[in-house]
Design brief:
Elements (H helix, E strand, L loop, with lengths): L1 E3 L7 H4 L3 H9 L4 E5 L2 E6 L7 E9 L7 E8 L2 H7 L4 H17 L3 H17 L5
Antiparallel strand pairs: 1-5, 2-3, 3-4, 4-5
Helix pairs in contact: 2-4
């Protein structure tokens, strides 16, 4: 499960007032919920794009902090896609992921990568035994 933060000064509920509708519009019908860090996330058990086996997405609330977007894209293996002839859908799946994350967070793929790099670098500077 990956968690994404919003741009400075922006909030998830302001960017996407109806997250459930956004998830259904992008990935397909929501079939259930799944708990993650005390928040219920939406599960798309049979996504529209054949590349995805399952998509889990939703807002994770933190006391005293801004909500974060939590997402887990479960994708089929490349061999599986080749056998069923669904390899062409991979580009659409990638675009759907990037568009969804951009709409929700206001950050493009490059900005999300940079943010994750900084988080990893910050963790590396923290001593283990303190």
């Amino acid at each position: 499960m990956e968690e994404y933060k919003m741009r400075r000064g922006e909030y998830l509920e302001e960017r996407v007032p109806d997250l459930e509708a956004k998830i259904e519009e992008t990935f397909g019908e929501i079939t259930g919920t799944e708990e993650f860090n005390g928040s219920d996330l939406h599960v798309v058990g049979d996504p529209d794009n054949p590349v995805f086996e399952k998509v889990v997405a939703g807002a994770v609330e933190y006391s005293g902090k801004k909500d974060k977007l939590a997402v887990d894209f479960v994708e089929r293996d490349l061999e599986d896609l080749m056998e069923t002839g669904d390899v062409d859908a991979a580009e659409d799946a990638n675009n759907a992921k990037n568009d969804f994350l951009l709409d929700c967070t206001g950050r493009d793929a490059k900005a999300r990568r940079e943010s994750m790099k900084r988080a990893v670098e910050d963790d590396a500077e923290t001593p283990d035994n303190v």
